[in-house]
Amino acid sequence: MTEDAVKVRVGTPSMIHSFMDLTFACVEENALLTPSTPKILNEVWASLNHDHGIAGVIEGDAGTLEAGIVLRVDTTPYSEDLVLCERFIFVRPEHRAAKGGRASRLCEFAKQVADQLEMPLLIGILSTERAAGKVRLYERHFGTPAGAYWLYGAKTGKKQAHAAE
Questions:
Q1: Angstrom distance (rounded) from CA 24 to CA 96
Q2: How far is residue 84's CA from residue 117's CA, in Å, rounded to a whole number?
Q3: Inter-CA distances, 85 with 2, 53, 98, Å
Q4: Closest Cα partner for 107 from 82, 130, 86?
Q5: Angle in degrees, 0-180, between the axes of helices 102-117 and 131-142, rounded to the nearest 10
Q6: Which of 2, 53, 149, 163 is the most interior residue, by most CB within 10 Å?
Q7: How far is CA 31 from CA 75, 97, 160, in A?
Q8: Residues 6 or more apart from 151 whose CB is under 8 A from it?
Q9: Cα 153 to Cα 165: distance, rounded to the nearest angstrom
Q10: Taken in order 115, 139, 141, 22, is the CA torsion positive or negative?
Q11: How far apart are CA 36 and CA 71, in angstroms?
């Protein structure tokens, strides 16, 4: 696929199975805790159906999903005001170095949705894998970070133990 051909489009309910496969690839790589299929399905299904959310996808030449993002309209724990919350953003490893900047395109999609909805976008990184590169990517797209996460007694990722070292 050429760089110009890499486009984010809005996901549809017919993509549920391929999007769940993409989501579980993300969970396998980045998860902090044991995944819950019903919780993941609820987030993905609602977003694919535009029920307080939206999903953006990048499809390959064969129609397979190379990358995706789930954005949900939600509140914070301290306010009734709505914000757009990123729940999931993932580019399959075999497409991360390919031309087209899939992660950048998903970031731009998230900004466009936030602008259209006229609400703040809450997006972050909760990963110990390649975190520095992800931070640089997000700083290019979103500016200076508004905070950080620390994990005590756990690490993210499929090969990480979930106990304090």
A1: 17
A2: 8
A3: 30, 9, 27
A4: 86
A5: 40
A6: 53
A7: 23, 22, 10
A8: 32, 128
A9: 7
A10: negative
A11: 18
CB-based contacts of 84: which residues, under 8 Å, 6+ apart? 71, 72, 73, 110, 113, 114, 117, 119, 120, 121, 122
pLDDT tens by residue, the chain, 165 residues: 555 679 999 999 999 999 999 999 999 888 788 889 999 999 999 999 999 999 999 998 887 899 999 999 999 999 999 999 999 999 999 999 888 899 999 999 999 999 999 999 999 888 777 778 888 888 999 999 998 888 888 888 754 443 433
E strand spans, 14-77: 53-59, 65-75
Structure tokens given for 107: 């970031």
SS3 content of the chain, % helix, strand, coil (to 5): 40, 20, 40
Q: What secondary structure letter does DSSP report for 8?
A: -
Name residue, tokens 């006229």.
Answer: 118
